């Protein structure tokens, strides 16, 4: 890379030619405040918080979009810069609702942080306050335009990364608002409920639907048997809510906290992930052997499922009929577990802790109630669980070592890696390879399907079959992959799709890192590392070797793909209209 | 899929025209604004059904189209009347009291800016300078110019269109 010499705040630096001033300053550890900037996602220079003085330029320049060049002299702290930034911030605050005390993002708000950093101690300007209705009709996402700072990070995420495009900037001037077409609720547009908009929002304008109260009420109800299950990605991110480093593994603390909150049993969704592999692996082998619809596409990600139902109805038959793991688990808890423990399934209340907002929507799908009761009663995000732990006054970092409960306690490494992109594929390969060959295989780490490349392809030699596989994460990549298949440019047997970039570790329900961190640390990679560590340390790493799952089949389901399994563990999908027509 | 038939089986001419407009611009980059202009000429406004067809035809998200439609005041989400009342809000007219003229029209027609009377006869809009500052405050009703108005003149102006 060609280098250039620049001067920032009297410091001489040599930086790559393709850097912006912001990147160069970051490398020299010179902090420049930003608000609308989010690296690789939103680089539009709109908010003017990052202005700097560039020698020879007529006016202050936005550091986030200004490219460096040989001999550039920059001042990031002059009086003019300080004043301009402060006035800009004061103007942004002038029509903000400023209800920080009751805001979900209080103490994790980039606007609040800027006000503190830039020493805003009085509000000089009182602008006309906007008074838009709050959109809380979606089961997953709540949108409060009165807190919106119009940074457009959510719009870029929804439109450019996810290609879902259900929000955009509407109107102009003071009336500008980020909302859906025709100001419809997110519940009435083809929103996938992935929640990626929430994770990039610098303020509290986007948040998940808070369901914690439902869980508190259930826990207080003596008639209910309240059980909880946790997805693999939660255990590698929950610690961040308590100030721990990104990628901390807090499985034991999480289990201990859930016990203290009063759940009767703490189960591991990973066990159901193993069950999913048994069902989905069988489905794959059947489809290949019997000329079924291929490629088979995974169905664990409810955001992806809704995306497919809205945009690619022609692929619905390709979707695996397997329910997502936590829904399978819910169905098992209200059937097998209820019978085994002698508990009336009507009295079992299943809570899922998920890294996901779309799971809230999924849990409400009417077809996901195999036993006559909803498979899962309430879904909480990782953030909501952290909130409950804080509310209960549990010291998260000081807890005794705890393990998941039986009779579904034991999970394998294959179940754990579901949390990272490529994980379901890898877990399936570990099992399918052995089932087809009838031999035990030692080399089970499929590196080709790991990592954060948008679309990963792998060709795996199995017994008598060359299996062509692809993995896409993030809905924009899923779209690219499906278009490729539609155009006849690629053929696969098996495809894994995760709705969120990086898979569940970077789900819409995960802890929110401010742009100042997120722009420079790859959350997907750091959290995935912890997932693979967890996998490596587990004694059993293949789903079909899970003793609990074997018992489950022996005692209840007979075999993968059995009639009973289909009744409880499988589902179906429907094509959904994108914008149902209004009566005009 | 869009159809060219209405419920009685006759061909919807406006929709046919819209499909022609879309076909004309289908492969042109940045064609959204001309398509919206021409579509509005056909329909008089840009309701959801029309925007949806443009979204489908140009392969652009509806949210993006709606964003453009609401950004420019020229585009309208609501139907326009047979007589389009445009009140000039340019600087000269504004200082000469076009605000009061506008208020009077709102009162007499019983509608707000951007709206249309129930009988579909009048719609009311505020516009930028129409280049007739010498006549300030000035309004236009379709292609007719009415200048040097006083709020008390409004009733008389509307009277002229009563039986048309």
Q: Which shape of chain A, going by the Cα principal axes? A: globular
Helical amount of chain B: 40-55%
How much is the radius of gyration of chain B in Å?
A: 18 Å
Report how far the terminal alpha carbons of chain A are from each other: 58 Å
Tally of separate helices of chain A:
19
Counting DSSP E segments of at least 2 residues, the number of strands of chain B comes to: 4
| SSE pattern of chain B, N- to C-terminal | HHHHEHHEEEH
The CATH architecture designation of the largest domain in chain A is 3-Layer(aba) Sandwich
- What kind of sheet is the major sheet of chain B? 4 strands, mixed
The helix-and-strand class of chain B reads alpha+beta
Q: How many distinct beta strands of chain A?
A: 17
Rounded average pLDDT of chain A: 95
Task: Specify the CATH homologous superfamily of the largest domain in chain B.
Answer: Glutaredoxin
Summarize the topology.
The complex is a heterodimer of chains A (about 575) and B (about 160).
Chain A: E1 3-8, E2 11-16, H1 21-27, E3 51-54, E4 61-62, E5 73-75, H2 79-94, H3 110-117, E6 141-143, H4 153-161, E7 168-170, E8 177-179, H5 196-200, E9 206-208, H6 212-220, E10 225-230, H7 251-261, E11 265-268, H8 269-289, E12 296-297, H9 302-311, H10 325-341, E13 348-354, H11 358-363, E14 378-381, H12 382-391, H13 413-416, H14 423-437, E15 455-462, E16 465-473, H15 475-486, E17 494-498, H16 515-518, H17 523-537, H18 547-557, H19 563-569
Helix pairs in contact in A: 8-10, 8-14
Chain B: H1 13-25, H2 32-43, H3 48-58, H4 62-71, E1 83-88, H5 91-95, H6 98-109, E2 122-127, E3 139-141, E4 144-146, H7 154-159
Parallel strand pairs in B: 1-2
Antiparallel strand pairs in B: 1-3, 3-4
Helix pairs in contact in B: 1-2, 1-3, 2-3
